Amino acid sequence: MSRAATSAGAGPLPGGAAPAPPRRRPVSAATAAVAVLVVAAHVLAWRGTEFSPVALLQGWRGMADFLEQALPPDLSAGVLLTGARAALVTLAIGLLGTTLSVPSALVLALLAARTTTPNRWAYQAARSVLSFLRAVPDVVFALVFVTAVGLGPFAGVLALIFHNTGVMGKLWAEAMEEIDLGPRDALRVSGASGTQVAAHAVLPSVVPQFVGLLLYRFDVNVRSSLVLGLVGAGGIGFLVNQSIKLFRFGEMVTHLMLVMVLVVAVDQLSAHVRRRIGA
Amino acid sequence: MAAQGAGAPALAVRGLRKSYSGRTVLDSLDLDVAAGEFVAVLGANGCGKSTALRCVVGLETPDGGTVLVHGREVGPAGDAGSAELRRRTAMVFQQIHLVRRRSALDNVCAGALGRLPLRHSLTPALFPRELREEAMACLDRVGMADRAAEPAGRLSGGQQQRVAIARALCQRAEIILADEPVSALDPAAADQVVSLLAELARDQGLAIAAVLHQPALAARHADRVVGLVAGRAVVDAPASRLTAADVDALYVPDLRLTHLEAS
User: Fold this and answer.
1) What is the 3-state secondary structure (H, E, C) of A149-186?
2) CB-based contact (8 Å) between A59 and chain B?
3) Residues A94, A107 within the same domain
4) In angstroms, what separates the C-alpha of A205 from chain B's closest C-alpha?
């Protein structure tokens, strides 16, 4: 052992000369106060939502009855066929709602990104519009549009266009604010206008992020269009709602299984494309 | 070009001042670059070289001083009256700043955006054919014509910097300012890029000022060397007469501090 120490010469450096290591800082009062607040918030939330594992255990019989009626699922050809057709309508609502919100989202994102906005007023105005569109849930938009164009998938598409413009515009604006500003400066020096800089420096740099976010929103929108169906905006959500109202729980389970297939397929597709483009 | 301001240097900087929160970066800097001349700007980190170039092209707003292009004063950035005058100056950056996903050719064409109407420039597909041909000529001038179709991000650092210089040529700039154009390049690529700048000054009559960190490159290629210490030009000599002592004086570690204490 002594041989190893002397021959390798890799023992600890003599510590006398170097300054002592700094002391670890104790937990500050602010950190402790934040911890107490977080715990208190959870206690209040527990009470506010009447959270009770006991109630769940006592009510297990209700669930069992429900499942007994729901299983096995109704796999008759008629149910499957109407379900599949409605699932395609749901997919179509998500697709159109996403695609048709691209132009409005792009314009608002360009105005609402600090890297491309023409001035402070446009920036604030665009931010406000995006915030409003994001703050109103798509279900509320759907209810409003149902009163205008009646029950059916068209109201769902309109609802998605409005809500998705708010969300995607915000995400795109943020993507544009995160880019390296070098190419923008280079083109500014050459005398390019704001629109030209956006078209030739900012947008080409964010194409992969934009496509990635678009696919992510398509994925989310297909799932929200299910919920839109519950409030009467067509698609398979509408069928799920109907079968619950008619106590046809077996039919409902079949529809839910179709929903699962649809959601997984869309998710896989968008993940695959996002991997390919490296976003 | 020769008609107006005959006799005036292509670029003249007079009394340029800039400070950041009390710290003086440029202290009444004067700098002339004549057409056909390649000036190397040397100086330690933080002596104000990059800030000076960024002030000249309008990426920074100087606190005082004037910039004259062919004897005509350039107004503040965003001043519509000076837009045409500003377009005569191009800048080349250390980080190159090409759009990596676009082809080398599209990047070079982008240098011409300042003189294109929006209907010919909203996307690269709308660039007129004459512009594409001019951009190819610019790429050919820097020896990159054979890589025109490749995305800029796939080229090596030296190749990218040459494409960036082609972009400056496509801007039809008469003055090129290069901010540490070769600091991120290996020695061979660095020599290639600097000698290209020297050639452009000699053959095309461009006024070129390049911030360099390698005095040897400056001595080999530049016509004149300007040395900055604490935001002032303290050395201004033909490259052939630059002495080792001149260079050493620019890089004395605490020169700035001793200067300040003495004054």
Assistant:
1) HCCCHHHHHHHHHHHHHHHHHHHHHHHHHCCCCHHHHH
2) no
3) yes
4) 7
